[in-house]
């Protein structure tokens, strides 16, 4: 109920109540257009990665509680899944299906539907987030506004780890264009720099558009 009241009122502007069995209440944030992504990519600063000293996932406070009382992870699972059924708390999905664009597979076990940060937390740390405030890192780690959080199968998430596009690309080549657009948009919004190899790889991804 908490999710229904908060998300429907905020994202759709209609005050209504729904039961615990629900599909996603909103679509994932769309990536920018190819032309916008190319403009943003051209403006990104090229730099040398910072030290990983002091890094931890906890520095980004994942998965924090959202205004609806659910965690960021629970909100993404509800938002991006199909035929999602939530438990009595109105937050934790108990069943559903989730599409993993990285490897063009569908996950039907909740625990195997992992949430990936398009720009990895470790990559963000070494390209500028090490100098952010705790509040800025929390906003990045729990960003539902931008194309930053995505459903990923456990295997594709593990394969990607904290690699940037110069080190890893989705096995699903049909997703390369969108992946490049999303990655660039996050780097641009949060004013993170890129390495020269990373910038070249992002250009290659956009060439797939």
TrEMBL record:
| InterPro entries reported in the protein's UniProt record | GmrSD_C
Which keywords, in A-to-Z order, does the entry hold?
A: Signal
Claim: Iron-sulfur is one of the keywords in the record: no
What sequence ranges are listed for the domain GmrSD restriction endonucleases C-terminal? 105-203
By its UniProt entry, which Pfam families does this protein fall under? GmrSD_C
Annotated signal sequence range: 1-26
Spell out the protein name for this chain.
GmrSD restriction endonucleases C-terminal domain-containing protein
């Amino acid at each position: 109920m908490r999710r229904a009241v908060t998300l429907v009122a905020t994202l759709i502007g209609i005050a209504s109540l729904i039961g615990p069995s629900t599909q996603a209440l909103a679509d994932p944030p769309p990536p920018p257009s190819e032309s916008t992504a190319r403009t943003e990519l051209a403006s990104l600063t090229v730099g040398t990665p910072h030290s990983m000293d002091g890094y931890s996932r906890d520095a980004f406070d994942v998965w924090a509680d959202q205004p609806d009382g659910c965690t960021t992870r629970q909100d993404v699972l509800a938002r991006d899944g199909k035929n999602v059924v939530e438990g009595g708390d109105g937050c934790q999905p108990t069943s559903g299906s989730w599409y993993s664009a990285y490897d063009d597979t569908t996950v039907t076990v909740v625990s195997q539907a992992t949430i990936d940060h398009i720009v990895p937390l470790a990559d963000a740390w070494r390209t500028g987030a090490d100098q952010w405030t705790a509040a800025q890192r929390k906003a990045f780690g729990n960003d539902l506004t931008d194309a930053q959080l995505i459903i990923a199968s456990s295997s594709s998430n593990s394969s990607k780890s904290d690699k940037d596009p110069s080190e890893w690309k989705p096995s699903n080549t049909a997703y390369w264009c969108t992946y490049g657009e999303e990655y660039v948009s996050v780097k641009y919004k949060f004013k993170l720099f890129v390495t020269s190899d990373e910038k070249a790889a992002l250009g290659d991804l956009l060439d797939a558009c």
